[in-house]
Design a protein that fits this description.
The chain is α+β, with helices and mostly antiparallel strands. The chain is built from 26 helices and 17 strands. It folds into four domains: 212 residues, Triger factor/SurA peptide-binding fold, CATH 1.10.4030; 141 residues, no CATH class; 122 residues; 93 residues, Chitinase A, domain 3 (Roll), CATH 3.10.50.40. GO terms for molecular function: peptidyl-prolyl cis-trans isomerase activity.
Length: 643
């Protein structure tokens, strides 16, 4: 229910998470593919970007945090480049959050709070990226993770300490927050309010210039809006697949080799026996003996088990060593000692006390060398092929690292090199419908981390199909050349000019209405051909259910009764002037679900409001000194403006 309300009023949430956890650890160890898209320090402007109280935020800290934030953003936008991330304000957001987090930590220490070594140790042990395959902390995994991300233990500990101080200070603020019932009731009533008024629309096309812009105008527009035309990075990949046929020229298996393998594996070919059992497992020896006594009295093993709420299981065609590995040596010995049809037990095994009925005994005769010669030959050929493939792939990998080219390797393997069109990090073909060939799916991500003309090898089907590949060409993310997008620029220049003029017209109409004119009369005074004003009567809940929520409807349900406002709906290329005449509210009982749910959910949001106020106060309580030269240098290096 409250989702309806949230659709109308969007506010900042999750500040505890962004302030308490944005850091080297939060994202760097959440996934295994964090890319080092920048460098630590070493930029102009000094080695720090800010000083917060006694804490220094270094260029390395800002670079690493920005890289981590970019990786997190790529989870929802895989083609986002660093240039695009910075242009959209991501870099400034990261810096702001780092300053806030440092200010909170400084304030926490002023209040006497500490993040002890034991607490930091506990956080390290519980970090998934530092755990082994058994789920427990593993020092080798810890050190490997640090090496992979160019971090030191000191950096990790400092970052965790900062986050823990922020948590200790911020989290308690959110606890116990409760919105007064009177306010909760007002908001709950808004969940189903009905509003009446009038709206006038001002389409951009009604005000757009008719002619084309001058060269100077289009150049200025292009320069002012470069971030809107950033193209994602795309790469051309060359590749060739090969199979086990690449090592088909193997020496033949000799009779002597077959005989040697037969002798080495003699235990596999000697006479043996396979047996089938019906078994029942019970907790105690006494219970097992009781079952045996009942069967001796004429009841079947299955019936005896069923009368006790149990069930038998069947083991078919098993050899003694295999049965011993699942039951126990004692159970297997007893089962293979009895005659067919005999009842054996009780015998203690891995799961309890066993009662067995030997349902089948099948002797397996010994097999001579002549009997298994072909089988052994096939095994040896497969082993040789597998070993040769391993040697080939290891050799290719070594030779690639020493400068061997893809063409040279393909010529040796007798395979043809295929070349993709430019593709994006998502695997989609740039500028076209369709995706990269399916066989490249496993290597695209890696290909976007490679340098050009540095071949690699990948296993597509374990032990069967391999691929050699390299990156032939990289087109870095950059703003599209103006000449290539001139038509698009002209259309959007015209649209933006139209939106600006529509906004001015909306402002004129708004001023007339505020002066006492009706919206319809104020609209008629405009020279442009505009649609007539439209009467509105809208219920909030019905509107949300229909999914027709825009900036105009959000404004309509945010206004005070008797007011007039204007708003731009950019996605629709329109401005609106909206007049709200009347608000109808429904009465709510104290136990109304709308009231109770709204009270609970707004109380939770209230804690976030408290946090925002606290963060502002914490920042005001400590001295924050920004090094703008250092900040600009990090920004320039991340976006490639300096190398």
């Amino acid at each position: 229910m409250f989702q309806i309300f949230r659709n109308f009023f969007k506010s900042k949430v999750g500040i505890v998470v962004t302030l308490g956890f944005l850091g080297l650890i939060a994202v760097a160890f959440a996934s295994s593919d964090v890319a080092n898209t920048g460098m630590f320090g070493g930029v102009a402007g000094g080695d720090r970007v800010a000083v917060v109280g006694d804490r220094t935020i270094s260029t390395a800290d800002l670079t690493q945090n920005t890289n981590n934030a970019l990786q997190q953003s790529r989870e929802s936008n895989p083609t986002l480049s660093m240039e695009g991330f910075v242009a959209q304000g991501g870099f400034d957001d990261v810096l702001s959050q780092m300053l806030s987090r440092a200010a909170i930590a400084e304030f926490a220490e002023m209040m006497g709070l500490r993040a002890s070594k034991a607490l930091v140790d506990s956080e390290i042990r519980s970090t998934p990226g530092f755990q082994g395959i058994d789920g427990t902390f593993n020092m080798d995994a810890f050190r490997a993770s640090l090496r992979q991300r160019s971090l030191t233990e000191s950096i990790v500990r400092d970052d965790l300490s900062l986050s823990l101080l922020a948590q200790q200070t911020v989290v308690p603020i959110t606890l116990g927050a409760r919105l007064p019932d009177s306010m909760a009731r007002t908001y709950a009533q808004l969940l189903n309010d009905t509003r009446s008024g009038t709206a006038a629309v001002f389409p951009a096309e009604a005000f757009a210039p008719a002619g084309d812009p001058t060269d100077a105008q289009i150049q200025e527009y292009y320069d002012d809006n470069r971030a809107r035309y950033i193209r994602p990075e795309r790469r051309t990949i060359r590749y060739a697949a090969f199979t086990e046929d690449a090592v088909s020229d193997l020496p033949p298996v000799t009779p002597q080799q077959i005989a040697a393998r037969y002798e080495a594996d003699a235990v596999l070919y000697r006479a043996t026996e396979r047996r089938s059992f019906t078994q029942l497992v019970v907790p105690t020896q006494a219970a097992a003996q009781a079952v045996i006594d009942e069967v001796a009295g004429g009841i079947s093993l299955e019936a005896s088990a069923q009368s006790k709420g149990l069930a038998t299981t069947t083991v078919s065609q098993v050899e003694r060593p295999d049965y011993a590995s699942t039951a126990s040596q004692a159970v297997a010995a007893a089962g293979f000692a009895g005659a067919e049809g005999a009842l054996v037990g009780p015998v203690q095994g891995a799961l309890g006390w066993y009662v067995l009925r030997i349902s089948d005994v099948a002797p397996v005769p010994a097999r001579s060398l002549a009997d298994v010669s072909d089988e052994i030959r096939e095994t040896l050929v497969a082993e040789r092929r597998r070993e040769a493939l391993n040697e080939l792939t290891e050799r290719l990998e070594t030779e690639f690292s020493r400068g061997r080219t893809l063409e040279q390797a393909a010529a040796e393997l007798g395979v043809e090199i295929q070349t993709t069109p430019p593709i994006l990090a998502t695997g989609q073909v740039y500028g076209q419908t369709g995706e990269a060939p399916a066989e490249l799916a496993r290597v695209v991500d890696f290909a976007f981390e490679m340098e050009p003309d540095r071949p690699e090898i990948s296993e597509l089907v374990p032990g069967q199909v391999f691929m050699i590949f390299d990156v032939e060409n990289i087109t870095r993310s950059a703003t599209a050349p103006m000449a290539e997008i001139r038509a698009q620029l002209v259309a959007q220049w015209r649209r933006d000019r139209g939106m600006a003029a529509a906004g001015q017209a909306a402002a004129r109409v708004l001023e007339r209405v505020e002066g006492g004119a009706s919206l319809a009369d104020a609209l008629r005074q405009e020279d442009a051909d505009l649609p007539p004003a439209q009467a509105l009567r809208i219920n909030r809940r019905e509107l949300a259910q229909q999914g027709q929520i825009t900036r105009a409807t959000i404004l309509f349900f945010s206004m005070a009764e008797g007011t007039v406002k204007r708003v731009a709906v950019q996605e629709a290329n329109q401005w609106f002037v909206v007049a709200l005449d009347d608000i109808e509210l429904a009465d709510l009982d104290a136990d109304s679900p709308d009231f109770l749910n709204t009270s609970a959910q707004l109380s939770a949001s209230l804690g976030q409001e408290y946090v925002e106020q606290f963060v502002a106060a914490a920042e005001a309580s400590v001295e924050i000194e920004r090094n703008e030269a250092g900040i600009d240098a990090v920004r320039a290096q991340l976006t490639g403006a300096i190398r």
